[in-house]
Amino acid sequence: MRTIGALEAGGTKMVLGIFSQQGEELARQSLPTLSPEETVPAMRDFFAKHRIDALGVGSFGPLDLDPASETYGNITSTPKLKWRDYPLLKALVGDSGMPRAIDTDVNAAVLAEAERGAARGLTDAVYITVGTGIGGGVLSGGNLVHGMLHPELGHILLRPHPDDINPKGVCPYHDGCLEGLASGPAIGARVQGDARELPDDHPAFAIEAFYLAQMCVNLILTISPQRIILGGGVMERGALFPMIRKQTQELLGGYVQSPAVLTGIDKLIVPPALFPVSGLIGAYLLGKRALLQS
Ligand code: ZN
């Protein structure tokens, strides 16, 4: 039996899986994300022990995803300094010739949700994770979008909420970007404490919904997705969903005359079906593709 290794590389933990070619999960391990010198040998050992035939990786980024590039598969300008310019894919598979593929963690997640989750059977979908940071993966016309680099939806610019006491946000790069205004740390800075302990009707969540609705509006108006999947720790507060949907409709102002927006928005903006393993399953699917193409 041929087996596929999958890695969801995150800023706080690495989730490693072993799958059969058909997608049955055979093993899983989690490791804290320390330095490459500490973490990568343990990951290599895990995959070597299971004698994988291909490897798929969904990773935090930014990443070099140009297969023609010398630095294909490298993590590039990440603020996680120990991993900056780190050749992640090469470090895991070396020159072994093993079929391998890498994409962003959120592109992996949208792929998984489109193949077997909340966007099953659709060709155009977006997966946004709202947690310590914010990232988005885009499937357009059935293809994962890379383009010049890859989408960095977490840093689109938004207009401030009139009641926001911190309208510049917490991103070190930008004033008023999505991640700076709506990530977990942004909410924490706004309420000056742990937002998880606050009730659903706390004003901070109306502000949060306003920002995430602006993001949905911009996505609807630019890439016209059939599904917008909102995952990540912040979205575990399910009460945000109806607030975001309502605000999205209001901000669109009736301009987009599609039943998906006007009456079907409950099915347009949804939680993931595969959380918390969308990224891991997506990594497996990337590895499977690489194996089939080899
Ligand atoms: Zn930013």
Can you walk me through this structure?
The two termini are 16 Å apart. 35% of the residues lie in helices and 19% in strands. The chain is globular and about 55 Å long. The protein has a five-stranded mixed β-sheet with strand order 3-2-1-4-5. The protein has two domains: 119 residues, Nucleotidyltransferase, domain 5 (2-Layer Sandwich); 153 residues, Nucleotidyltransferase, domain 5 (2-Layer Sandwich). The longest helix has 20 residues. The protein is built from ten helices and ten strands. The chain is α/β, with parallel strands linked by helices and 294 residues long. Strand 6 and strand 7 form a beta hairpin. The structure holds zinc ion. Zinc ion (ZN) binds next to helix 4.
The CA-CA distance between the termini, in Å, is 16 Å
**Within the largest sheet, what's the order of strands?**
3-2-1-4-5
The ordered string of helix (H) and strand (E) elements is: EEEHEHEHEEEHHHEHHHEH
Rg, nearest Å? 19 Å
Main sheet overview: 5 strands, mixed
pLDDT < 50 stretches: none
What is the CATH third-level topology name of the largest domain?
Nucleotidyltransferase, domain 5
Oligomerization category of the chains in this entry: single chain
Our estimate of the beta-strand percent is 15-25%
| Ligands | zinc ion
* Average pLDDT rating: 96
- CATH H-level homologous superfamily name of the largest domain: ATPase, nucleotide binding domain
Report the CATH architecture of the largest domain. Answer: 2-Layer Sandwich
Please identify the top-level CATH class of the largest domain.
Alpha Beta
